[in-house]
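Shift notes (night). Ran Sulfotransferase while the centrifuge was going.
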Amino acid sequence: MSISEEMYLHYHGLIVPKETHSYESLEFAQGFKFEDDDVLAVTYPKSGTIWMQEILPLVLNGGDLTPIHTIPNWERVPWLEEKQLARVVDKLASPRALVSHFPYNLMPPSFCTSKAKVIYVMRNPKDIMVSSYYFHQMAGFLEDPGTFDEFMDKFLEGKVMFGKWTDHMKSWRNSELGDRIMYITYEEMAQDLPAALRRISDFLGCNLTEELIQKVAEHCSFKSMQNNNMSNFSLIPKVYLDHDKSPFLRKGIAGDWKNHFSSEQLTRFTSVISKELEGESFSLPWSL
Ligand code: A3P
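Came back to this:
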């Protein structure tokens, strides 16, 4: 199965969409100078990236709503590897927050020597695949996903942007960043957002009061984000993101895979993923 050379570019073995990435933007990321107080949220696509773009500014600035109501998410907490970073980098408030889909092995040298903290957000790969399937339908800059069954093959073979989920996961789970990295799951955030926010706030040394935790949770809820034009991608022209085909903020739940996978697909998916994770010292936070 091949991927569209017209829509994607290859960078050190990684597949990325040309619309949002260029060779220059990927090189800009390599030369990016991390500062010790930078905070980076890393995700495999469709694991909760824009959720972190809402959460981080609120946690870092004590619940001030101004950034999330006045700056589009992609400029407020930009992607390290995307084209817009060079344009907005000088405008970022300190401490800076960024997101990235890079696997650990593509992190720039300055990240490794800095003390910048990382929050790695994991999501059940079955739900990632479902979310990604709909995203490929609505995003004009991604290949048509074909049928759900065909897309499953592409996903399992890593013929999708940012490659195989298992490779991404392995790279960050084995990164040995000690107390610079915190692992959190989408499911944990979906089940009890205030508890997840307390963990994030403690990790970042922000120590938000309970009142602020509740306020941040309210503004980072699925409903609030759906209603926030600075976070729901409604500012992006339809030719790039067509919310009539599927909204970006689609369902926002854990376990939607149960509405999509046949028992044969479940067996196929589970066997490929388990095989690729065989022998790894970390365990998954969900059963496959
Ligand atoms: P679904 O398609 O399953 O709804 P990313 O930002 O990494 O592309 O991930 C997008 C997924 O995160 C989508 O999943 C989206 O709905 C979900 N998401 C974003 N904000 C959320 C929130 N506040 N609560 C729950 N899910 C959220």
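The chain is about 40% helix and 10% strand. The chain has a mean pLDDT of 97.
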